[in-house]
User: Fold these one by one.
Assistant:
Number 1:
Amino acid sequence: MPEALTVRRSASLTRQRILEAAILRFSRSSYEATTLRDIAADVGIDVALVHRSFGSKEELFRQAARVALDDGFQRAVEAPDLGAAMAAHFLQPRLDQALKMVDPLDIVTHSLSSDRANPILRELVQQDFILPLTQRLGCGDELQAALAIACLAGIALLRDVLCIGVLRDASKDQICPMIEKLMHACLAKDCEPQLSEPSS
Amino acid sequence: MPEALTVRRSASLTRQRILEAAILRFSRSSYEATTLRDIAADVGIDVALVHRSFGSKEELFRQAARVALDDGFQRAVEAPDLGAAMAAHFLQPRLDQALKMVDPLDIVTHSLSSDRANPILRELVQQDFILPLTQRLGCGDELQAALAIACLAGIALLRDVLCIGVLRDASKDQICPMIEKLMHACLAKDCEPQLSEPSS
DNA sequence: CGGCGCCTGTCAACATTCGTTGATCTCAAT
DNA sequence: ATTGAGATCAACGAATGTTGACAGGCGCCG
């Protein structure tokens, strides 16, 4: 049964290669700027096969985003020092198994403002980022979690999408402590300190 | 010479109306999703006139972004309590003179990941946000300013573009103090507490 | 061994959309 | 009436997702 030997003409292998190429493309350009023809050319196949393997561009993007994000953040969220772990996870590009260097957030930040990718990313951000972080906090304060994620997304955005110089050039030693401080400010458990709400 | 009486067939007036419609459209959809035909329909004119009035879509977007951002942030940055002023400026939609309600950041956040709008927005963010804030800080730490802007952009993005529920539903009383705390964490003068660097 | 049929992959074309442009029309001022 | 700028019309050219018809190898069954 030469199932594993079927190197040529293997649908699953082709799907895998398409998915990897798609992750790379979607991590570097927006949903709209990334064309199925580009991805097809990377794999060395025809456009039609890309389309037929995933049904539609939207579905390809959805699966690419799911695979790219993987459960990396789930693990980061379980670390003892939450702030440091989140800072590290979002700041150093990750080396995926067979992929090139890809920051897991790139695929999110590069297509945030695309209408088609929008609902997909909303679901993903909600389920894969805000929800686990909320549960980890235990405080039940989803707003804190959302704010923390928003800050990290904003930083990644200005750094990797807008390419703001000072953010790109900052060394890890320089920026990591600031992110940690930020995360601590976001996630500080002041849900009920002693009800010290100054009446404005 | 009835120059001001030329209500009909006035190029400058038409330009103004196109610009207003463009700001509205670009504040609600991405650069690519916004078509010149949409804008033309809003004004009630032909596509060609929109194009001829501004030379190109890119130029229209550039001018729309410039006008939309105005110098609102410049003023916010001069307030005594910087954190509170920035939180207020970015969180409450502003009522522009003749325009509908538009958050000045919307036009930035909605097109962040568009390739065409990217260089325009980078320049804008650098000049109109990071630079003034850096100068206001006086500390010369551009990284702090960039981080603060990044956080605000991220929050606006998750709230207004991704439409994350918990951020959309949060009341101003709920979220404003948290933003202020964040801004203070970003902008805290811990660069040289006792040694004041001579203003360059 | 050999024809059959399925799965993988290709080719060409469609339908649509959008920015852009040149010719043309229309109105107001001279 | 003439002229010139404001405005329109129709069309181009390019790009892209999508689709259907077709080709080629591979296993299956006779």
Number 2:
Amino acid sequence: MSLRHALLGLLSEGPASGYDLLKLFDESLANVWPATQSQLYGELGRLADAGLIVVLSEGARGRKEYAVTDTGRAELRHWLLEVKPVPVRRYDMLLRVFFFGQISEDDAIAYLGEQRQEAAEEADRLAELNETIAPYADNFAVYGRLALEWGLRSSRMYQEWAEWAINEVKAHDRTANPDSCKPD
Amino acid sequence: MSLRHALLGLLSEGPASGYDLLKLFDESLANVWPATQSQLYGELGRLADAGLIVVLSEGARGRKEYAVTDTGRAELRHWLLEVKPVPVRRYDMLLRVFFFGQISEDDAIAYLGEQRQEAAEEADRLAELNETIAPYADNFAVYGRLALEWGLRSSRMYQEWAEWAINEVKAHDRTANPDSCKPD
DNA sequence: CCCTGCATGTAATCCGTTACATGATTGG
DNA sequence: CCAATCATGTAACGGATTACATGCAGGG
């Protein structure tokens, strides 16, 4: 149920409409907790029903501006301080690695090479993003930078692992076929 | 839809029952793609309906032994070679970091310290697991080791990041309150 | 006047988790 | 004979994705 806390967190910096929040999500939280429009509006309704947020004002085109209530702020603090984060446990990419026995070693190496490449591109993308953030902006920028650094380190690690794994597969290949000789 | 491919992958090393597969899941795939018993039996039924697997034999206590069909093997290969892995994009732990503005800097540091600790424990756990795997066992062991190495590098990176982030928050604290002086 | 952007909602479907439910076999 | 293990299934619920559906307001 982290979407609700993400919304409470965003609203805790100031009132916003569903539309505003959707943009905030896409700008800042997309890399750690994506959400779709329909999910977002649904959750806002439920948050309002639960009294964690309220409609501050209604504007043009049915625009509703929401603000966090004290109950909502308390819930956010509770989640931040007392609820243990759930570690990620599903890696489509690694699952395939278990089944490398079903494809040729060349195909396995090609797969790992692609992963290496994607990780490198992700690292570049994040490094660039890092440049565009003003050094001392709002709270989101300051703390978002910590998350961004995580992404950078993560994609670098990913890249290095893929390089290491390619060599492992090649070594395994040589053990299995000691007479064959393939070019790099 | 990776559960289905995980099942096809496991079955591609030899026939097994739902019960067998459940144990295989918990032993080898739990860290990259967990599955519950009820999910597994449901998916086996759907795979059989779709003709990707067949019931080889029925044993005692209603035991059904499944085997992959050629269609199933083709589907597995297709998934391995042509379907791009979906990158993980939801990090409960990092989402909280964005909202550090809502808690005190000491609380933020405590949070990061816990994460550092958990990462260290995970690294130890995986290092130990690495020792228990026979050097040249079956395909799963050989390639599973690649995934395990990923986990090791990942938890080390996580740990180092948390240490770095703690210092960042402290530095930010000192910028905000230049006169205060806290013990480490 | 029309297109773009603002703005909100609903419905269908899938995947995953938790809990419930049941029964057969085997070893001590 | 009893407990542990083998073995399979169903039901309820929640969260996420995709697609559908609608309509207003402002600028060119």
